[in-house]
Amino acid sequence: MNEPSVSVRNLTKSFSGRAVVDDLSFDVRKGEVFALLGHNGAGKSTTIDLILGLKEPNGGSAKILGMDAAKHRKQVFERVGVQLQNTQYQPNITVEEACIEFASLYAAPADYPQLLEQFGLGTLRKSFVSKLSGGERQKLSVVLALIGKPEVVFLDELTTGLDVVARREVWRTLKQLKCQGLTIFLTTHYMEEAEALCDRVCIIRSGKKVIEGTIEETIAASGQRNLEETYLFFMGEEELL
Amino acid sequence: MKRFWKMYQVEQKIFFRSPDVILFCLAMPLVVFIVITMITGGKNAADSGLTYLQSAYVSLSTVGICCSAFMSIPITVVELRSQGILRRMYCSPCSPARLLACDTICSGVVAALSTLILTVAAVFFFGYRMPGNVFAYLAVWLLTMVSMFSIGLMVASLCRTTKSMNVATSLLYFPMLLFSGATIPAEVFPGALRTVAGWMPLGVGIRLLKSVSMGCYDKIIMPVVSLTAIAVICGTVAVRTFRWE
């Protein structure tokens, strides 16, 4: 069996005595799209931070491509792309300049004009990032995540704030990327998005895993009709069903 | 190296898009220089042994350093941190230190450009000639820059929020700009204020630069040692206390 692209084992992190990530374990297999689902404050972003080595866990371990990101930062991030929540851009930077700057970080970067075209940003190369719409900016952050030709990409609430059209465009591109063998780890609040894109999901509540499996397995385990109802069921919000 | 150069070019372009860099670093010293020289250029500046032209050239050649060190550097670093840009850079094969290095070099280039513009104006339009050795002056100017930049970087490391950084930079920048002798010639200060100016880090640099510009090399050891000490101490604190987020 292939080594998982991301492997999380008994990961634990607490802030001032409160467990934010609690004994969390899961694997993301090579070439699959995997979603970590949960409420705001459930520990999704903290889990990503721990996997990426941005925060140090209190216990357990997380490996990307078999390596600890905090210890082998350079090797890991030459092969892993990220889009973080709430990342802003320098004032007065243009789309093209942001691409040049991020491309300069990698030994063998992708062809950024082609990526911009692929994401429908080709005509905005000379525009200031501050003048872009929310959707365009999110698409740019995906371009920047892909600029190092990664094998694994982390997308943290990528489509939050996007309109329906922009979201569908991002989905289409992510599906293409998946066909090319990219492993995608994402978090989202939109269950139809997880259903449309993901092979497997993991639902967490207060930092603890509630269920993990393929979309079909997860829905079957809850006895509900779709992922949104399944999510509410596992979150203990049955009265909303 | 080629990759560093690419990033540097982008950052330098962004720098020149900022109106306060153009205004405070590049235009202001030149304007003050022209005004002082037109009014009192040929007269002797108190008992300093320099004319106002000579004094103003030296003082104003440090304004670019002052603006870069106490405004540009702390503001840039704290903004990069608070906006999550350093955090994002951490998630790449490169260290965020590269971006910081690029930005510090950009600030240095702006300070040098500011002095270059001033020098062209002083030499070609006001007939300024430096009595001392130009290369010695350049060396001391660079030392002053490194020393002041290390203070700026230390402030950037110690200030966790944009608010505290704004307070710190205002407390450093304006007193240094006005009372160290960088813009208003220290020679016109009353005695007490002149003593204060002499104790300010930038004031130490300016006095040293004045001596060297006049070819007096007998009292330069203490200020050189002080500036070097500032650079080492503040530089160390800056690196030790630095955080990406």
Put simply, the count of helices of chain A is 9
The top level CATH class name of chain A: Alpha Beta
Major sheet description of chain B: none
Name the beta content range of chain B.
under 5%
Distance between the termini of chain B: 26 Å
Largest interface (CB within 8 Å) is between:
A-B, 28 and 25 residues
* Oligomerization status of the protein chains: heterodimer
Q: Give the overall pLDDT of chain A as a whole number.
A: 91
DSSP strand tally of chain A: 9
Helix fraction of chain A, binned, reads: 25-40%
- Return Rg of chain B in Å: 18 Å
Kindly report the spatial arrangement of strands forming the biggest sheet of chain A.
5-6-7-3-8-9
CATH level-two architecture of chain A: 3-Layer(aba) Sandwich
At CATH level 3, the topology of chain A is Rossmann fold
Please state the structural category of chain B: mainly alpha
Total of domains of chain B: 1
Structural class of chain A comes to alpha/beta
Helical stretch tally of chain B: 11
Which overall shape of chain A is indicated by the principal axes computed on the Cα atoms? globular
Shape of chain B: globular
What is the H/E string of chain B? HHHHHHHHHHH
